[in-house]
Description:
The protein has a domain at 326-482.
Amino acid sequence: MMWAFLEKNKNDIIYLSLLLASVAIGPCYRSLGTVQAKKFTGTIIGLSIIGIVSGYSAIHPILSALIGIFIIKLATVRYCHVAAFFFMFGYLLFFRLADKFGLPLSSGQTNLLQMIIVLRIVGVAFEINGSWLMVAKGKNKDSNADTPKEKDNDFVEIINPSLIDLFHYSFNYIGLLTGPYYRYRTFDDFFKLPFSKYVDYTSFTINTLKAVPIYVSLYLALSNIWPLDYILTEEHNNRGFIYRMLYPWALFSAFRQRIYSGMTLAESVCTAVGLGAYPVEGQNKTGHGPTVGYLKLKQMSDEEAKNAQYDFNTVESMDVLGCETVVTLRESMKVWNKAVQYWVAMVVYKRFPIKSLKIHAALFVSVIWHGIHAGYFFCIYFCPFYVMAEDIYYKLYYRNATGMKKKILGFIMWFLRSHSESYQAAAFLLLTFDRIWLYYSSVYHYWYGVWLVFLLVGIMLNQLNKDSRFKHTKGLKEGKVE
């Protein structure tokens, strides 16, 4: 039984072992004497991890990254981001359809590596272009001004890494396995600024890691009691409707524990070396880093850095408490995989030229980045339709509620949000259209009908509320005239 378990979960065990090893070598890595030693050692470890995980398939992340780097350096700064974006996503599509070209398909673990490489190459290209647009054209604010609480612009200085630094950034082992995504600026600051030297990395790492055994245990328990494949069996279809309706809750619960454990370990790889540590006064945000007074932070003396209070918000991927407790799907999307959410916002949403299509472009890129299966489309692209209805009820009833009424409404909205996520997660996990259709047919595609009714009733109630307020305002005006 034990051997069967090990064989079934071989890839996950290797992946988990590499993450734990990456955490364990952190103190040794951060103790290396010179910047160059750290950069080259980090890259060698990263390339070794790619080789161990991918075998011959390592050619894909390595080759695509190298070509992407050369595209960035050969293209003009005005167009490097566009060229890098289309090449990296084009290669990602080729990578996932390799069998159509007579090549073997790579493992899921190699796919994760490829996804991280895409984020890094495209992300740094947009950093280079964005910094040129904002700084070279004089649009940046002076972070040394006498208004330290005023937020910085996205870019306050030119970002122009050398060819070798792009190579090191692409392949450094920190965050390579499962993320989190971090900007090139964060990577550069790790080597040049004293923060990683003085942050209490041990306490942060222990505090981050302590919940991992709970996540892993819950994942193993839930996935064994309620396995994914059971949802497609005749036995499942013969169960009661309530059972079939709620089965995705168990699937999504198990999936969340798996993601929590992987993301938490990935964050611990960063905390173990000090990457992403910034003084709290920078009001640091996931992915971005300091949002206030960045240039002042760069001028900190060693003595000031030694006495500063730090956080690792820059490399926080999952707000686990938020994922479990927030009331709305809109809030839930903000606390789930925050580093990738930041990348999508920075690269796609903010930069897409047609305002009315920004959200569609962001969702489409997110779907393509995750994969080419129908399940990703069903899961991700249907979120806005639920959010449209949810926003109406939130504004009408929850936002201004107080006391017990707010708690009851909050529970109802939390339940509906959680149920919607579970229903969508079933598609995400089942992946292919035929498997998704089989399960959704077993529950009569009921949740899409609920969404539609939810939205139509919400629109009607919202219109009635507007009419009522209009009549009330009109009555007040008429009363004043009298």
